[in-house]
């Protein structure tokens, strides 16, 4: 319902007086229906209305927009809002044009619905629409109050000329630079990495001050560490700005980390988690497009209405989500192996896109984000209505390695001078380190977040609103298990630096984003050495000789060689191992598994003390059960099942243990049957029911999968890089020999579906 604007105060552009709080609250109530200002809003508004520059740090969802929207309504004239959220240039950074446009429309529409004359200028608009805006601006008394533009538009001489005219007529009130952190003052290294095309507009922001010296500038951001604050103030040439900082704490968000390596099936875990939130809305961030697609399919299959925002983003997806038709948006944090810019922008794009849906109850990161800053921004999408909400991060050791690999390499992709390259890479890794600590250390998660922004807070601030404060023992236990599982994998050489997802081939038969053809075409120039040391491999990627043209096959082969060397030279025993052997469950592994179970039983002996059981035999029985079930699928599944069993032992009742041992013993005594594989319905009888009981009870978390292990529910095998390459070669050959590309495409998709 549109409202007519509240009559303006009699404050002309020339007058620099403080408008009283009452008058401003009246505007707030009239247009937005809120009873009072939040946090530092009033101070920021009064500062800019009195003509002073202001640098305002407010947490995500803190209400930054209000700081320029109210001034736009309190004074005659126009507020110019420079926002990276609406930049069509962003499609150059793999961000989708349509989505950007949809968001922009959404924001302006929201203003219009409130009776506020807002417009945006973008290349998505028709010439007619743009002309109407320009006509309005040049009319005697423009009705426009807020004009949203991109930094790129500011850089054009045509627009700057128009702006100066508006200014000269005394109609420009304020320049607000929203999400200023997104496109300025990263640091000098990152700035160097911006594509040439973006540099002028980026720099032109500072020229706003030179060209329009009398207009106050309001810089707004949700995340800026002290160094960046200085950069922003310098770059924008702010004069004696009022610096307003609110705490970054989001008390209504409960922070939790779950460990993929300790879960039977993270997908199911997430499904259950989301289901436990009923019809509330959620955002799930994934690292790769393929993972995003997989997850979207998985969630949909499980009855969760879900839309994937992937390569073919559609404004309708977002519209549906904003209008509550879709419960979950799985937003890919599309990442390009070869582009640092992708690292800089993509990860944070979806979180910064300014979606103002207040009732997001859950934000889940299905992969670890690359920095605390990104994580904070993204998780901050939850609970913008200040109601209790959750941030859930699934941490996986493989995800961590993958990200470390990417970050180590990212700088080398831009042909930077080596000093900058090293520095940039170090910075990214240091930023990432904070995320690892957030996941792998047992202290308060909230404290870690806040400390990363330079805020010293007492642990009591959390008030048990993170898993580490609420369930310290459980979290410590998980971390211990994670450490032993990781150490174990490390010793046995099962971790894979080049591991790709099960959907390494996407449905179009192209590579996953990790191996995106477009990226290849964009001309990266490194090679891989034969070193068996991952660190060496990473280094060699950075420093290898340049070739004029990127050749994917060569690169594939060298990576394949590197992987083979990695496994092949680990030790002489490994050398002889075939791929199948590597995934097999060795006797040593089994022995250590038994020991692990025995320890777990001993640790929990107070609960089992009345049972007439021998711990050693029981541990062997349980280990046999795991082995029988997972010997065919291999080591990783076996290990994960062992970890689950250890957890189960920490909560199982004596009856449950007797029951399980009894069943297992019966089954163990049977001769090995052909149906002992996973498709056997009878195998369900000895599938342990494992729950994160405590977690579930107290936090409403999910119940771990207890369904029978069948062929359908088994997680797909993870291909090694070599397997991936061979498979790709096979499909490529198939493709090239085919006279009918369309039917071949179908074959390929089917092949993927059946094989993976
Ligand atoms: N004083 C207020 N009282 C109540 N709600 C408010 C107030 N100010 C803003 N809001 C609401 O808070 C929500 C978040 O505001 P806004 O989008 O401006 O946040 P933001 O700081 O820009 O967040 P982000 O960093 O995520 O972009 C909006 O729905 C807005 O209407
Ligand atoms: Mg905002």
TrEMBL record:
<keyword id="KW-0539">Nucleus</keyword>
<protein>
    <recommendedName>
        <fullName>ATP-dependent DNA helicase</fullName>
        <ecNumber>5.6.2.4</ecNumber>
    </recommendedName>
</protein>
<dbReference type="Pfam" id="PF00270">
    <property type="entry name" value="DEAD"/>
</dbReference>
<dbReference type="InterPro" id="IPR027417">
    <property type="entry name" value="P-loop_NTPase"/>
</dbReference>
<feature type="region of interest" description="Disordered">
    <location>
        <begin position="697"/>
        <end position="718"/>
    </location>
</feature>
<keyword id="KW-0067">ATP-binding</keyword>
<keyword id="KW-0378">Hydrolase</keyword>
<dbReference type="InterPro" id="IPR004589">
    <property type="entry name" value="DNA_helicase_ATP-dep_RecQ"/>
</dbReference>
<keyword id="KW-0347">Helicase</keyword>
<feature type="domain" description="Helicase ATP-binding">
    <location>
        <begin position="45"/>
        <end position="242"/>
    </location>
</feature>
<dbReference type="Pfam" id="PF00271">
    <property type="entry name" value="Helicase_C"/>
</dbReference>
<keyword id="KW-0547">Nucleotide-binding</keyword>
<dbReference type="InterPro" id="IPR011545">
    <property type="entry name" value="DEAD/DEAH_box_helicase_dom"/>
</dbReference>
<dbReference type="InterPro" id="IPR032284">
    <property type="entry name" value="RecQ_Zn-bd"/>
</dbReference>
<comment type="similarity">
    <text>Belongs to the helicase family. RecQ subfamily.</text>
</comment>
<feature type="compositionally biased region" description="Polar residues">
    <location>
        <begin position="702"/>
        <end position="713"/>
    </location>
</feature>
<feature type="region of interest" description="Disordered">
    <location>
        <begin position="730"/>
        <end position="756"/>
    </location>
</feature>
<dbReference type="Pfam" id="PF16124">
    <property type="entry name" value="RecQ_Zn_bind"/>
</dbReference>
<feature type="domain" description="Helicase C-terminal">
    <location>
        <begin position="269"/>
        <end position="424"/>
    </location>
</feature>
<dbReference type="InterPro" id="IPR014001">
    <property type="entry name" value="Helicase_ATP-bd"/>
</dbReference>
<dbReference type="InterPro" id="IPR001650">
    <property type="entry name" value="Helicase_C-like"/>
</dbReference>
């Amino acid at each position: 319902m549109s409202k007519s604007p509240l009559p303006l105060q009699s404050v002309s552009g020339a007058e620099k007086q403080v408008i009283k709080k009452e008058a401003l609250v009246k505007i707030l109530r009239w247009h937005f229906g809120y009873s009072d200002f939040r946090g530092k809003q009033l101070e920021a508004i009064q500062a800019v209305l009195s003509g002073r520059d202001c640098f305002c740090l407010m947490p995500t969802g803190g209400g930054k927009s209000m700081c320029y929207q109210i001034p736009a309504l309190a004074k005659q004239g126009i507020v110019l809002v420079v926002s990276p959220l609406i930049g069509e240039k962003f499609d150059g950074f793999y961000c989708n044009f349509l989505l950007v446009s949809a968001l922009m429309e959404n924001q302006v529409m929201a203003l219009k619905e409130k009776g506020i004359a807002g417009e945006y200028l973008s290349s998505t608009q028709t010439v007619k629409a743009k002309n109407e805006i320009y006509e309005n601006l040049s009319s005697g008394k423009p009705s426009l109050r807020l004009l949203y533009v991109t930094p790129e538009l500011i850089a054009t001489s045509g627009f700057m000329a128009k702006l100066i005219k508006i200014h000269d007529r005394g109609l420009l009130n304020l320049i607000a630079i929203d999400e200023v952190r997104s496109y300025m003052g990263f640091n000098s290294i990152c700035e160097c990495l911006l594509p040439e095309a973006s540099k002028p507009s980026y720099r032109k922001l500072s020229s706003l001050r030179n060209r329009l010296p009398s207009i106050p500038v309001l810089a707004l951001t949700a995340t800026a560490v002290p160094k960046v604050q200085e950069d922003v103030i310098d770059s924008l040439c702010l004069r004696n700005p009022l610096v307003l900082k609110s705490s970054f704490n989001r008390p209504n968000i409960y922070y939790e980390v779950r460990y993929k390596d300790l879960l039977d099936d993270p997908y199911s875990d997430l499904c259950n988690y989301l289901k436990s939130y009923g019809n509330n809305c959620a955002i799930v961030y994934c690292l790769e497009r393929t993972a995003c697609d997989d997850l979207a399919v998985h969630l949909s299959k499980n009855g969760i209405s879900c839309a994937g925002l992937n390569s073919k983003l559609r404004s309708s997806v977002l519209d549906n989500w904003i209008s509550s038709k879709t419960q979950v948006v799985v937003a890919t944090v599309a990442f390009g192996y070869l582009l640092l810019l992708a690292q800089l922008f993509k990860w944070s794009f979806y979180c910064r896109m300014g979606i103002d849906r207040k009732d997001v109850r859950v934000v889940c990161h299905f992969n670890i984000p690359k920095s605390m800053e990104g994580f904070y921004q993204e998780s901050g999408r939850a609970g913008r209505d200040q109601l209790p909400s959750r941030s859930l991060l699934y941490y996986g050791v493989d995800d961590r390695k993958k990200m470390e690999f990417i970050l180590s390499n990212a700088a080398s992709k831009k042909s930077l001078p080596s000093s900058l390259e090293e520095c940039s890479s170090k910075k990214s890794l240091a930023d990432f380190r904070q995320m690892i600590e957030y996941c792998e250390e047992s202290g308060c998660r909230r404290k870690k977040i806040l400390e990363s922004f330079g805020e010293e807070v007492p642990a009591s601030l959390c008030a048990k609103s993170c898993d580490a404060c609420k369930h310290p023992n459980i979290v410590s236990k998980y971390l211990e298990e994670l450490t032993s599982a990781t150490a174990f994998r490390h010793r046995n050489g099962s971790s894979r630096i080049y591991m790709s997802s099960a959907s390494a081939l996407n449905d179009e038969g192209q590579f996953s984003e990790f191996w995106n053809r477009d990226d290849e075409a964009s001309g990266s120039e490194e090679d891989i050495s034969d070193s068996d040391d991952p660190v060496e491999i990473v280094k060699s990627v950075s420093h290898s000789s340049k070739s004029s043209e990127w050749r994917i096959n060569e690169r594939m082969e060298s990576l394949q060689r590197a992987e083979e060397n990695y496994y092949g030279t680990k030790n002489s025993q490994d050398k002889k191992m075939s791929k199948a052997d590597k995934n097999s469950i060795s006797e040593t592994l089994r022995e250590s598994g038994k020991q692990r179970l025995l320890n777990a039983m001993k640790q929990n002996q107070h609960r089992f003390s009345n049972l007439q059981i021998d711990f050693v035999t029981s541990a062997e029985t349980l280990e046999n059960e795991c082995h029988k079930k997972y010997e065919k699928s291999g080591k990783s599944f076996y290990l994960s099942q062992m970890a689950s069993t250890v957890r189960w032992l920490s909560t199982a009742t004596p009856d449950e243990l007797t029951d399980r041992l009894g069943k297992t013993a019966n089954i163990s005594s049977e001769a090995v049957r052909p149906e002992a594989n996973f498709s056997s319905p009878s195998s369900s009888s000895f599938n342990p029911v494992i729950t994160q009981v405590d977690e579930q009870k107290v936090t409403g978390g999910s119940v771990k999968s207890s369904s029978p292990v069948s062929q359908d529910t088994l997680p797909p095998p993870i291909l090694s890089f070599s397997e991936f390459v061979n498979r790709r070669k096979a499909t490529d050959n198939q493709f090239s020999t085919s006279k009918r590309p369309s039917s071949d495409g179908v074959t390929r998709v089917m092949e993927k579906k059946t094989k993976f």
